[in-house]
Design a protein that fits this description.
With 633 residues, the protein is of the alpha/beta class. It is 35% helix and 18% strand. Strands 13-17-16-15-12-10-11-14 form an 8-stranded mixed beta sheet. Strand 2 and strand 3 form a beta hairpin.
């Protein structure tokens, strides 16, 4: 299948000839020129292709007269608005006295453009994949010998040794001849009357791009006030790719308009397939009403012939998409079983409105392909947004302390890419609000797991910290909210250190409530500038470092394995190397013996020269010590 389509419009003077086709303007009618006929057919071909297959099959439109006019480019301007505006500026062919050139140069240029790289081809080359060099050139003209176009293309391909593959389709308008078709393996020539061109072009685009037509029947529409009937049923044909599902037929289908009661409340269902659609005739009044009905945000439910599928038409950013929804036991549009309160919880406890708002904020819309592979892909950004919204999202009000304090608005503010100064102030006020509840001993409606007020306050701080720290790296404004939290909690700014890390990182430590023996809790108390309550110490999560004790790092250790590391001095008897038993306090015994030896050496009983008078002058303490050393005297 061709990946690119180049449409060549013959804009020479000969296309000003009138045809038997007329156009009605109010009460007047005028004959269409050949230029008008081929331009309308080319616009319809381009519109269907861009609405349904723009992502995989880009289109380039070229008008040829004395020179070539490119109506759009491969890398940009892939939209009908730009092409129609360029056609309007181009205008009808002009009558000149110059000799009219043939289409050889224009066809050669179309071949070159078909083999050039489109934006999709450039992306494949950047990813290391060779794109398919396969293009289709569609020429709208009115000449006597259209076979010359085929010879021109074949000769040009042979002379330039192009490795690509080119298919040539020629729509040649004829007036006095019957419609004929001649084709070979790669080229097709249609000699067609002006009145049959539109249907032939429609059949061609459906055949070449695996499309099909579905008819929507029984569309209710309000009639004019002058008529007696209140409403009538109309039919609208839509074009879309063939549905590649086992139970879906490939031929033309008819689906009936359905309007169940809860059709407009559909948010997300189990879609097994989605296909872009476009109306077959955009000028009909029923088609205009159906498209406007969808563009304002409403949804259309269609009755599929088989009960295992349901079909819904929804507008996504200006693109109408057909959703095929799988049904299990019943249709997804049947009335749901009402939810009642159970012992496990109440229905009103679920944060349904917040979840619905988050889903609406995460709605996807069509996005043009990036200009370079280094650009951020919309899918990656959508996943990042989803991660932000679900980083801290309690499912029930009873498990959300922030909702109980009336500051749940901070959830939606912090998920934004950028914050205004007013939003930063509002987030900071939410932090001060939590601090005021703690300091002023205000009652807390939230029930903690421990059943105590201190436990509820601690869980309130934990949820607030988890939310703020998970969004702190989005922008500098988010960092201001984090710094305010650090200031209130008594933790210095840690922009250069990873003090606060995600809850999934290794080595995290949770300080227990009221545990004054926790060294981390004591450290927080020391650096606290505001004197926060010991029971309101936040959850401190430290990055894993080698200086932490193994027990802090998460390893399971016993008391016996910790004591040898805390006691660095070995037992003296073990260090002496003496075999056998060793006495306690050997150092004290040695000092005692040394002191006693000096006393004996100067004892009066051992000195014959000491007189009784000197002995009598000795102090009672000294005599007592001597008597202990000489008990036999």
């Amino acid at each position: 299948m061709a990946t690119k389509t180049v449409i060549l419009l013959d804009h020479r003077e000969g296309l000003l000839a009138k045809t038997d086709q007329t156009v009605a303007i109010d009460d007047l009618s005028a004959d269409k020129s050949k230029w008008t006929v081929i331009m309308e057919a080319a616009v319809e071909y381009t519109r269907i292709l861009l609405d349904v297959c723009a992502a995989l099959h880009p289109v380039m439109v070229i008008a040829a007269d004395q020179s070539l006019t490119f109506l759009n480019k491969w890398q940009s301007q892939q939209g009908m608005c730009h092409i129609v505006e360029t056609l309007a500026r181009l205008g009808p062919p002009k009558v000149t006295e110059e000799t009219q050139p043939d289409l050889s140069t224009a066809l050669q240029q179309c071949v070159d453009m078909g083999l050039s790289n489109s934006l999709l081809d450039i992306q494949k080359l950047l990813l290391g994949t060779e794109p398919a060099r396969h293009a289709r050139v569609i020429c709208f003209t009115s000449i006597d010998n259209p076979a010359n176009c085929v010879d021109i293309v074949n000769d040009y391909l042979d002379s330039n040794s192009n490795e690509g593959k080119i298919e040539l389709v020629v729509f040649n308008l004829v007036e006095n001849k019957e419609s004929t078709e001649s084709c070979d393996p790669h080229h097709v020539i249609h000699n067609v009357k002006p009145g049959n061109l539109f249907q032939l072009v429609l059949d061609t685009v459906i055949k070449y791009h695996n499309l099909t037509i579905t008819t929507i029947t029984s569309i209710p529409m309000k009639e004019e006030q002058s008529t007696n009937t209140q409403a009538a049923a109309y039919n609208v044909d839509i074009v879309h790719p063939i549905v590649e599902l086992p139970s879906c037929p490939r031929e033309r289908l008819t689906m009936k308009w359905s309007s169940p009661k809860n059709a407009q409340n559909i948010n997300l269902k189990n879609c097994v397939a989605t296909y872009p659609v476009t109306p077959l005739d955009v000028a009909e009044r029923p088609t205009i009403c159906l498209v406007n009905f969808l563009l304002v945000g409403k949804q259309v439910v269609l009755e599929y012939p088989k009960p295992n599928l349901s079909v819904v038409l929804i507008n996504h950013g200006g693109t109408i998409v057909m959703h095929y929804i799988a049904n299990s036991q019943r249709s997804v549009f049947d009335e749901l079983t009402p939810i009642v309160d159970t012992p496990g919880g109440k229905v009103t406890d679920y944060r349904g409105e917040e979840l619905q708002l988050s889903i609406k904020n995460l709605e996807l819309c069509p996005h043009p392909p990036p200009d370079a592979i280094e650009c951020e892909l919309p899918l990656n950004r959508s996943l990042l947004e989803l991660e932000r919204f679900t980083a801290c999202f309690p499912l029930t009000y009873s498990t959300s302390p922030l909702d109980s304090c009336g500051i749940s608005r901070i959830f939606g503010i912090l998920c934004k890419d950028t914050l205004t100064d007013r939003e930063v102030t509002e987030c900071q006020q939410a932090i001060y609000r939590v601090q005021g509840i703690e300091v002023k001993k205000e009652p807390v409606s939230f029930k903690s797991k421990s059943g105590k007020r201190d436990g509820a306050i601690q869980e309130l701080w934990q949820e607030l910290e988890k939310l703020i720290l998970s969004m702190a790296n989005i922008s500098s404004q988010h960092g201001k909210v984090r710094d305010c939290l650090y200031k209130i909690r008594g933790v210095h700014s840690v922009s250069e250190e990873s003090l606060y890390v995600s809850s999934t990182s290794e080595g995290e430590i949770t300080s227990k409530e009221g545990s004054s023996s926790n060294p981390l809790k004591r450290g927080v108390d020391q650096i606290s500038d505001l004197g926060s309550s010991p029971t309101s110490v936040p959850v401190i999560k430290l990055a894993k470092t080698t200086s932490l004790h193994p027990s802090i790092a998460g390893e399971k250790v016993s008391l016996l394995s910790v004591l040898p590391k805390l006691v660095s001095k070995e037992f003296a008897g073990k260090l002496s190397g003496v075999t056998g038993p060793d006495g306690l306090y050997s150092e004290f015994q040695q000092k005692k013996h040394a002191m006693m030896g000096g006393i004996k050496k100067s004892s009066p009983y051992n000195s014959p020269h000491q007189s009784p008078k000197h002995r009598a002058s000795q102090s009672p303490k000294h005599r007592t010590l001597l008597n202990r050393e000489n008990p036999h005297r």
